[in-house]
Predict the 3D structure of the following.
Amino acid sequence: MQGHRTKDFWAGAIYLVLGLATVILARDLTLGSAARMGPGYFPTVLGGLLAIIGLVSLLRGLLRPGELVERIHMKPMILVIGATLFFAIALDFLGLAVALPAAMFITATASKRFRLAPVPLLGLVAFTIFCVLVFVRGLDVPLPMFGTLFGG
Amino acid sequence: MDILGDLLLGVQTAFSFWNLTYCLLGVFLGTAIGVLPGLGPTATVAMLLPVTFGLSPETAIIMLAGIFYGAQYGGSTTAILVNLPGESSSVVTAIDGYQMARQGQAGKALATAAIGSFIAGSIATVLIAFFAPLLSSVALAFGPHEYFALMVLGLAASVVLASGSLLHAVGMILFGLILGLIGTDVQTGAMRFTFGSFELADGISFVVVAMGVFGLGEILSNLENESDRTTVLTKVTGLMPTRADLRAMLAPVGRGTALGSVLGILPGGGAMLSSFASYALEKKVSKNPQQFGKGALAGVAGPEAANNAGAQTSFIPMLTLGIPSNPVMALMIGALIMQGIQPGPSVVQDQPVLFWGLIVSMWIGNLMLLVLNLPLIGIWVKMISIPYGYLFPCIVAFCLIGVFSLANSTFDIWLMGLFGVAGYILRKLDCEPAPLLLGFVLGPMLEEHLRRAMLVSRGDVTSFVTSPISAVLLLVAAALIASVLAPAIRSKREEAFQDED
């Protein structure tokens, strides 16, 4: 899939899908008239324009030689985004004091230079304490410090 | 207009203990993120926005502004010492600055950058104090037609000045505009694109978009090319410039300031374009252009002055018209709205404490930066050697906590993850994310003014042309777009952006 088509092609395809989706979704909304625009008027216009831009870009990608899409690195993406989603799921259960360092640890493994060593681990503990003190204690962000697992 | 009284109010505000503290905090953080490559002002301002909710509006803006212009100072340090731009606007500083450092003139290069930035910042601050009230008094007479036309002009300018493909810049703006419409329609109460989700009823917070696209998306891009950073030297000497050096930098700094001040006001221009334009100009007017690329003092002084001047004057359209000229200004507008202040021409009159306090704080901030960046340069030199592997998990952590604290819900974290993936993929496709954020912030305003304008003129589209101000604004917008499509200028534009890659 990747590498066969140019950047123009894929960007165009994304615009086209998003533009058409906007127009289709906006059909449920009242269109109104130019003088009295309903909630559907502006989105329909924007979606239509985006679809046109997408079509032009897509055709340009097909007809003209252009830069190919570079490889999309899946591993860092899965690890970093996975860590954010893990945090979202685990926050209530584990609490900030456990979920945060865990999410940071998962994130850190995305680096090519990741090595387990005592100093960064100590830094992780210190950073977690810092965040708990500043955000939960200092700024009163209603983050659970310890989750339901620990009876928090 | 009693400018002395206003300035006095500004001095009183800016010199209050807490405002001084937060100003220092802002410029300190700004320098830090400027020094660290891979962490930009957009992501940082987005991360810290939730923290500022508890502050008074002027204190919040003073600190956030400090981060933005502080980053311009810090970026040059990394550029000079490691040949890596700490900030995108200091790309050109690396060319001659690094050469100077290799020739043992690191101190002179750093001093030139800091002093040039300080002079430019001071002049640009005065420009804001004079021109912003003037512009806002003109803008007070604007109706919905004029506002709509003004925003179209702003978007057109950001398209023209954006690097990369024109088509994609327009596409990203439209995508941003559509994203901005998600949520409850203000006029009818209809739910738009919420998919029945309760959390989306209030729309997506721009902080979520900014953190996802600029915070996480940037991390994913950076992880592809991690490199070792080794500083050329650990001890910098010769920070005091000689009288001859000062004289040599005066003219480039003056030209850089003028160029940066003008380009900073234009949407999409800002700090980066200013520094490129200034470098090109200095090379052209120089008596010995062959010196450029081999350690020319003017090649550091001009661009550094220009990027700082541009950073400062980009506040003018934000403060007087409520229109952002770059992603950081888009975040500032969001910060003001969250503080209950509607950005627009009335801010100067209705919020004198905020407006004049900010202006005076900018000058103080620049002074603080001069001290932070010259005598205390040692701290930053040490900071450059922090490996990215330690840094990005901390950025992710701040994003997580910051996004959660927006609405105290984990839903926004999911959304941020989604925008992170989108930001990474779009970057891969050469679609610049900055126009997306501008469109996102302007979307609701653009629609509201369009609807009002059409209601007033009973659906008559020609009313946009019969109102003289809106006609001129739209004409300029059309001319801007047309100019890019014209082959001659098009090739020039591509040439100008070529050095960036």
